[in-house]
Design brief:
membrane; FtsL/DivIC; mainly alpha; 125 residues
Length: 125
Protein backbone atom coordinates (compact mmCIF):
# COMPACT_ATOMS: atom_id res chain seq x y z
CA UNK A 1 0.00 0.00 0.00
CA UNK A 2 2.93 2.34 0.73
CA UNK A 3 4.33 1.79 -2.74
CA UNK A 4 0.99 2.73 -4.27
CA UNK A 5 0.91 6.00 -2.35
CA UNK A 6 4.49 6.82 -3.39
CA UNK A 7 3.66 6.27 -7.08
CA UNK A 8 0.63 8.52 -6.66
CA UNK A 9 2.85 11.25 -5.21
CA UNK A 10 5.32 10.85 -8.10
CA UNK A 11 2.47 11.02 -10.61
CA UNK A 12 1.15 14.22 -9.02
CA UNK A 13 4.63 15.79 -9.17
CA UNK A 14 5.11 14.78 -12.81
CA UNK A 15 1.69 16.16 -13.78
CA UNK A 16 2.13 19.45 -11.95
CA UNK A 17 2.36 22.66 -14.00
CA UNK A 18 5.80 23.56 -12.63
CA UNK A 19 7.27 20.21 -13.69
CA UNK A 20 5.69 20.44 -17.16
CA UNK A 21 7.06 23.98 -17.64
CA UNK A 22 10.51 22.82 -16.53
CA UNK A 23 10.30 19.85 -18.90
CA UNK A 24 9.22 22.16 -21.77
CA UNK A 25 12.19 24.47 -21.12
CA UNK A 26 14.56 21.51 -21.21
CA UNK A 27 13.04 20.27 -24.50
CA UNK A 28 13.27 23.75 -26.08
CA UNK A 29 16.90 24.19 -25.04
CA UNK A 30 17.69 20.73 -26.44
CA UNK A 31 15.97 21.65 -29.74
CA UNK A 32 17.94 24.91 -30.04
CA UNK A 33 21.14 23.02 -29.32
CA UNK A 34 20.37 20.51 -32.05
CA UNK A 35 19.67 23.26 -34.62
CA UNK A 36 22.89 25.02 -33.64
CA UNK A 37 24.79 21.75 -33.99
CA UNK A 38 23.27 21.15 -37.43
CA UNK A 39 24.33 24.64 -38.56
CA UNK A 40 27.88 24.09 -37.34
CA UNK A 41 27.96 20.72 -39.10
CA UNK A 42 26.95 22.35 -42.41
CA UNK A 43 29.59 25.06 -41.95
CA UNK A 44 32.20 22.40 -41.25
CA UNK A 45 31.23 20.53 -44.42
CA UNK A 46 31.59 23.77 -46.46
CA UNK A 47 34.98 24.50 -44.87
CA UNK A 48 36.11 20.93 -45.59
CA UNK A 49 35.18 21.34 -49.27
CA UNK A 50 37.11 24.64 -49.47
CA UNK A 51 40.18 23.08 -47.86
CA UNK A 52 40.02 20.04 -50.17
CA UNK A 53 39.88 22.33 -53.20
CA UNK A 54 42.85 24.29 -51.89
CA UNK A 55 44.80 21.07 -51.29
CA UNK A 56 44.21 19.90 -54.87
CA UNK A 57 45.27 23.33 -56.16
CA UNK A 58 48.44 23.22 -54.08
CA UNK A 59 49.20 19.67 -55.26
CA UNK A 60 48.89 20.81 -58.89
CA UNK A 61 51.19 23.74 -58.13
CA UNK A 62 53.66 21.39 -56.47
CA UNK A 63 53.66 19.09 -59.51
CA UNK A 64 54.27 22.05 -61.83
CA UNK A 65 57.12 23.33 -59.66
CA UNK A 66 58.69 19.88 -59.51
CA UNK A 67 58.52 19.56 -63.30
CA UNK A 68 60.10 23.05 -63.59
CA UNK A 69 62.89 21.97 -61.23
CA UNK A 70 63.53 18.84 -63.29
CA UNK A 71 63.49 20.94 -66.47
CA UNK A 72 66.00 23.43 -65.00
CA UNK A 73 68.41 20.61 -64.26
CA UNK A 74 68.83 20.07 -68.01
CA UNK A 75 70.92 22.19 -70.38
CA UNK A 76 67.90 23.01 -72.58
CA UNK A 77 65.85 24.11 -69.57
CA UNK A 78 68.57 26.47 -68.36
CA UNK A 79 68.94 27.93 -71.85
CA UNK A 80 65.18 28.41 -72.25
CA UNK A 81 64.92 30.08 -68.85
CA UNK A 82 67.74 32.54 -69.62
CA UNK A 83 66.24 33.33 -73.03
CA UNK A 84 62.82 34.03 -71.50
CA UNK A 85 64.10 36.19 -68.65
CA UNK A 86 66.62 38.29 -70.55
CA UNK A 87 65.23 38.27 -74.10
CA UNK A 88 68.31 36.71 -75.65
CA UNK A 89 68.54 34.90 -78.98
CA UNK A 90 70.82 32.17 -80.30
CA UNK A 91 73.39 32.82 -82.99
CA UNK A 92 71.70 33.02 -86.35
CA UNK A 93 68.29 33.84 -84.87
CA UNK A 94 66.66 37.22 -85.41
CA UNK A 95 64.63 38.94 -82.73
CA UNK A 96 61.57 41.06 -83.51
CA UNK A 97 60.48 43.79 -81.09
CA UNK A 98 56.94 45.12 -81.36
CA UNK A 99 56.31 48.64 -80.09
CA UNK A 100 53.15 50.76 -79.93
CA UNK A 101 52.81 53.72 -82.29
CA UNK A 102 52.48 56.93 -80.25
CA UNK A 103 50.54 58.73 -83.01
CA UNK A 104 47.75 56.16 -82.89
CA UNK A 105 47.28 56.52 -79.15
CA UNK A 106 47.06 60.33 -79.45
CA UNK A 107 44.43 60.21 -82.22
CA UNK A 108 42.37 57.72 -80.28
CA UNK A 109 42.13 60.11 -77.31
CA UNK A 110 40.62 62.99 -79.34
CA UNK A 111 37.09 61.54 -79.92
CA UNK A 112 36.65 61.12 -76.16
CA UNK A 113 36.63 64.92 -75.68
CA UNK A 114 32.91 65.18 -76.42
CA UNK A 115 30.57 66.05 -79.26
CA UNK A 116 30.42 69.79 -78.53
CA UNK A 117 34.17 70.27 -78.65
CA UNK A 118 34.56 68.15 -81.79
CA UNK A 119 32.02 70.36 -83.59
CA UNK A 120 33.86 73.52 -82.46
CA UNK A 121 37.19 72.09 -83.63
CA UNK A 122 35.72 71.16 -87.03
CA UNK A 123 34.43 74.77 -87.51
CA UNK A 124 37.81 76.24 -86.65
CA UNK A 125 39.69 74.10 -89.15
Amino acid sequence: MGNFQKSGRLRRIMQSNIFLIFLGIIILSFSFSMFSFMGKTEETIRNKKIIEDKITELEKSKEKLNSDIVKLKTEEGIEENIRDKFGLAKEGENMILITDDKKQTETQKEPDSGLFWSIIKSWLK
